[in-house]
């Protein structure tokens, strides 16, 4: 859904939609990002993810950046904001989410082995 929300915002910016539309879409994207981060945090806590502190720190930095993105969008920096958000999300997915996914997958694999 993150990708869909980014693509919707991208399309609106490219089509020159009204600022109120793109601002609303950015808010929806950032609300989903917060929801996603909260969900990840619960999983990390539940399964005692050793990288939780670092991952949560990355989330805090990204949410601080998000406030900056919103202010830039209000000042007409649509394309810069869009590029920054896409770059921001992709780096987070590559650096943090993949490691978390591997950790959770290894837990699942370990549980399957124990059941065999």
| Percentage of residues in DSSP E strands | under 5%
What is the β-strand count? 0
Silhouette = elongated
What's the N-to-C terminus distance?
Answer: 35 Å
Task: Give Rg in angstroms.
Answer: 17 Å
Largest sheet: none
Instruction: Write down the overall mean pLDDT.
Output: 83
- H/E element string? HHHH
Proportion of residues in helical segments:
over 70%
Q: How many helical elements?
A: 4
Structural class category: mainly alpha
Catalogue the unreliable spans: none
Give the helix/strand layout.
Blueprint: H1 2-14, H2 19-46, H3 52-74, H4 78-115
Summarize the structure.
This protein is an all-alpha fold. The chain has helices at residues 2-14, 19-46, 52-74, 78-115.
């Amino acid at each position: 859904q993150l990708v869909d929300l980014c693509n919707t915002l991208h399309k609106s910016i490219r089509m020159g939609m009204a600022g109120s539309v793109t601002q609303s879409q950015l808010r929806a994207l950032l609300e989903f990002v917060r929801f996603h981060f909260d969900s990840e945090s619960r999983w990390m806590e539940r399964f005692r993810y050793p990288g939780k502190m670092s991952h949560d720190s990355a989330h805090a930095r990204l949410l601080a950046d998000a406030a900056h993105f919103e202010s830039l969008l209000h000042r007409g920096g649509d394309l810069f904001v869009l590029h920054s958000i896409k770059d921001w999300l992709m780096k987070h997915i590559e650096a943090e989410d993949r490691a978390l996914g591997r950790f959770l997958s290894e837990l699942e694999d370990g549980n399957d082995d124990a059941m065999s």
